[in-house]
Amino acid sequence: QIMSQVEGQQKNLVQAIEALPSSGPLSALDQDLLLLKATSAATLSCLGECLTLLQQSMHQVGQHHNRTLSSEGILGWPGPKSHSMEQLKNGALSSLSSASANITWAIVPSASQDGQALQPNTEVSMLASELILVEDEITDTEDNEEEDLGVMDDQRSVILHLISQLKLGMDLTRVVLPTFILEKRSLLEMYANFMAHPDLFLSIAAGATPEERIICFVEYYLTAFHEGRKGAVAKKPYNPIIGETFHCSWDVPKDKVKAFRTTGASTISKDPTKELGQDQSTCYKLRFVAEQVSHHPPVSCFYCECKEKKMCVNAHVWTKSKFMGMSIGVSMVGEGVLYLMEHEEEYVFTLPSAYARSILTIPWVELGGKVNISCARTGYSATVTFHTKPFYGGKVHRVTAEVKHNPTNTIVCKAQGEWNGTLEFTYSNGETKVIDTNKLPVIRKKIRPVAKQGPLESRRLWQHVTSALKEGNIDAATEHKHCLEERQRAEERQRAALTTPWKPKYFAKEGDGWLYLNPLWKT
Question: Are 315 and 516 in contact (CB under 8 A)?
Answer without folding.
Answer: no
